[in-house]
Amino acid sequence: MKQEQGTIIEEAAGGIIHEVQGTAMKPEHANQIANVLEAVKSRDIQNVYFVACGGSMASLSFGEYFISKETEVPSFVYTANEFIHRNPKSVGENTLVILRSHSGTTPETVEAASFAREKGALTVSISMEAESPLCQAAEHIVHYNYKDGSDAIDGEVGIFYTLIFELLNALAPNEKYKRVVSQLPNVGELIQKNIEQFADAANEFGKKNKREHIIYTMASGAYIHHAYSFTSCLLMEMLWIHSNAIHSGEFFHGPFEITDYDVPFLVVKGAGTSRPLDERALDFVQKFSDKVEVVDIETLNYEGVDEDLKEYFGPALAGSVLRLYADALAEHTGHPLSVRRYMWKMDY
Amino acid sequence: MKQEQGTIIEEAAGGIIHEVQGTAMKPEHANQIANVLEAVKSRDIQNVYFVACGGSMASLSFGEYFISKETEVPSFVYTANEFIHRNPKSVGENTLVILRSHSGTTPETVEAASFAREKGALTVSISMEAESPLCQAAEHIVHYNYKDGSDAIDGEVGIFYTLIFELLNALAPNEKYKRVVSQLPNVGELIQKNIEQFADAANEFGKKNKREHIIYTMASGAYIHHAYSFTSCLLMEMLWIHSNAIHSGEFFHGPFEITDYDVPFLVVKGAGTSRPLDERALDFVQKFSDKVEVVDIETLNYEGVDEDLKEYFGPALAGSVLRLYADALAEHTGHPLSVRRYMWKMDY
Description:
homodimer, 348 residues, alpha/beta, Rossmann fold, 5-stranded parallel beta sheet, 4-stranded parallel beta sheet, 11 helices, 15% strand
């Protein structure tokens, strides 16, 4: 069960490159991650800040989730401008600040990188554009490929999860984390299989919900960050559908009174320790709303992943599954996800 | 300007009792806070967790805001069930866990108190009911009075802010924090003055928005927690109006595309370092929505508060101002804030 599935093929990149079924991370990416780890190990890192905006912030939040759950190192997530303006006092030379922006041009995040670096923090920028302002502002770069035909291990999911699990292993060594890294080259194939598995359900969701003007999302644990992305970036930004990402644990402390037969909910029933929170909230909404959609993370395809590592892979796989539900809304509403009314059209 | 306004009248309660214009905290409350501080000082507190649900969680969050901004002590906010199920690894004997429930009966919070105490953490429960399960579960009690004619210094605002600023002074001593405590007996009169000042504006808001089915709230810094409470407890729970508390710094990274001429926003224009974030978001919504309401925290009455302490008093005063806006919606919709469809009517 717990065998090392991926064979280490490049010791030079700090043992990060593992091959699974002919798939392995490119050495230049593995070397970037290895450099970050070397820098982390050379400092007395006392806390970790994840700083970005919107969907990029939500993606980084999985790092905070696992660090808080599995290590004693304090970690925090900030939207970039709040980070700069609050100016948390514990940011200093013993701080690791990980920043992220897809294009690497998000002004607030670029400014946050410079701000953190001036305070002496170790800064790491994650982006698809290695030459971007964000990557220039930070000491270290972790670059990923995007829609260039590369495998997912070189894309945003493979690169980020490799970084996070190598970082976990540096902060609180555990053989499990190295096993996650060794099995991550599976992620591309798993994403494809899960897309196939959920395609019909997502299409039905789009068809049924095409007239809705508000759709709530709900989740807990790591998956609350998926709900946040789905709400902010997919529903509100791209589809102009009103929404709010409700934490399943908070649902009964206010939001649940909004539930009615005609109020739609998309509930992510997570895998992992907070699943009981989702189950309780789901039981309730299924009783009082006729419009409940469930994405059950336990039903995902995890082929090639050790049983005890599934909770780490779930968040890595859920994003592309949830994306299908937004694609389906776009298809059935005739409102492409690429349409904007303000972005790219004006300064703000 | 920076004179000690409140005269210390009870050294026995750790110098916490200050009298301003005849108003001073009751010795039994001051002694409870003094006991917490003594316990904090007798331990090597390495981190602070604020744990509660819904509006109580939002209220505790002001503690995390100021601790993160002004000290190097890591502090975190968790909804109670997420706290229990995530089980953050850094909770232990050097942890202070502050819990809060108005009635002291919220089951998840009671369980979180026992959970934290079993891990050896120093636990403090805040409630209006000193005999409640929550208060029985924790080592220390901080009790406040509620609607019994007591002054606000013995109510939830006075008691909580005294606790937090005494705690700040214990974690990172600064004469400013003692000045806050000495001026806090002003808070009751200030709340009254601000209620009078904002009554008409709130009434107009209720009148104008009585047909709305969705109202967004927006804020940043400390005030995002007021927005969260307003959204979850006042709009969604009590008024059955759809909502989402948007962080002003996140607005342009997704949510802003939902803005349209007929989409209502209630924006808290904060006082303090993150005000520029609110200003930018406000400029945008005022350009593209015809339904924008602003509560400007800088325009509050801060009489008797030192200029450099206003940023600490703003969050203490904003709650009762915002409540007026919900009262006005209740008045004009004919939907009392006390109405529920699920709570108190069934098990869930």
